[in-house]
Amino acid sequence: MTDNHDFWVDLEEAAQKHTLVPCEVLWANQYGVLVTYHGIETYVGRRYLGLEPGQDHRDLVGKTLKFAVRTASRRGKLLLTRQPVTAAEKRVAIKRKLENITLGEEVGGQVIEVRQMKVIVRLDEYPDAKAVINRTSLRRRFIADMAEEFAVGDEVDAIVTGTQPGRGTIYICPMEHMLDPWESIGEHFQVGQIVDGTITTCTKYGVFVELLSGVTGLVRSHDLDWNRVDSATFGQKGDPIRVKVMSIDAQSRKISLSRKDTMHDPRKDFAANHKAGDQVEGTVANITDFGIFVEVGDGVQGLLHANELHLDPDSDHKAFMESNHPTGSKIRVRILSIENEGARIGLAPV
């Protein structure tokens, strides 16, 4: 480069093309450093030096460093920064580190951000990388919102499950979620066993109960109580509940539960105190195409079959029954049969 080269042209071009220029650090004071580019001097404040925490900017004196040009004007205005340079250097360093991570490596850190679908963790081993726990990686139980499981400041011990070195991202899964309780479900529960759980969700078709961290079963509406109850308003999240295990399907990750089977069966009392031929008054509980279910005692229902009503075969049986015996109305019936200790009760009109 000739002695009469206009170095301002270099600086203006670097500002336009976002390229870097080498500058020598001449001296420093408590607020920043003075640098020169071929005799063109400018002052750079500490905030623009891209310093690491605890790094003393005075140690830069005498070194030649690359700077990005924020503004360059031959009228004498020159603003430089090291921030994008150091950021790029960090990205390269992080990328190299992450390329050497072994999947399955144990790491630990602290939660710094919680979102609905994921959690961001600052790892002790890789503080400059972004460690992510995705909701879909949690195997122990379904979580609708990650705030249910994590809070800012929580300590996390995890396993590395994946990396994206180019993005500086590590994917991790907490150790307790790496163990799938469904793989050993038979060691915890057996059909017929009565266990205590916690209500997690109440719906119109049943109540979900957490039996173990990561294991949730369903009590369907008709299995909640011998009397008809509204499962959607049955309880609150966190309420304790005692249930009986009715079936286990480990492959489908489903457990069928019953609450009423942990209670005394009122049908047995009814069967002990009644016999065929007895007349009782009941309440219409439900109407189907084939007959009327009548509640003849607390938690005890019998079936008044449509055939016992001797209806016109060409008529709409259900419409007739709904019209003449609406749900909730009283009806007097005769007991035709009692089977299976009251589990099946046949009825006829009086």
Please give a structural write-up:
By secondary structure, this protein is mostly beta strands. It has helices at 7-17, 83-99, 185-188, 266-273, 317-324, and strands at residues 20-29, 32-37, 40-45, 64-73, 77-81, 106-114, 118-123, 130-134, 155-164, 169-174, 194-203, 206-212, 215-220, 240-249, 254-258, 279-288, 291-297, 300-305, 330-339, 344-349. The protein folds into four domains: 7-81, OB fold (Dihydrolipoamide Acetyltransferase, E2P); 102-177, Nucleic acid-binding proteins (OB fold (Dihydrolipoamide Acetyltransferase, E2P), Beta Barrel), CATH 2.40.50.140; 183-262, Beta Barrel (OB fold (Dihydrolipoamide Acetyltransferase, E2P)), CATH 2.40.50.140; 266-349, Beta Barrel (OB fold (Dihydrolipoamide Acetyltransferase, E2P)), CATH 2.40.50. A hairpin with a 2-residue loop joins β17 (291-297) and β18. The longest helix has 17 residues, at 83-99. The N and C termini lie far apart (117 Å). The model has no long low-confidence stretch (mean pLDDT 88).
Briefly characterize the structure.
By secondary structure, this protein is mainly beta. The chain is 14% helix and 43% strand. It is built from five helices and 20 strands.
Name of the CATH first level of the largest domain: Mainly Beta
CATH architecture of the largest domain: Beta Barrel
Rg (C-alpha, Å): 37 Å
End-to-end separation? 117 Å
Strand content: 35-45%
Output the strand order for the largest sheet: 3-2-1-4-5
Catalogue the unreliable spans.
none
Structural class by sheet pairing and helices = mainly beta
Question: How many strand segments?
Answer: 20
> Which sheet architecture does the biggest sheet show?
5 strands, antiparallel
Mean pLDDT, all residues: 88
- Spatial shape: elongated
Report the order of strands and helices: HEEEEEHEEEEEHEEEEEHEEEHEE
Question: Can you tell me the number of structural domains?
Answer: 4
Helix content: 10-25%
Q: Name the CATH homologous superfamily of the largest domain.
A: Nucleic acid-binding proteins
The number of distinct helices, counting runs of at least 4 residues, comes to 5
| CATH T-level topology of the largest domain | OB fold (Dihydrolipoamide Acetyltransferase, E2P)
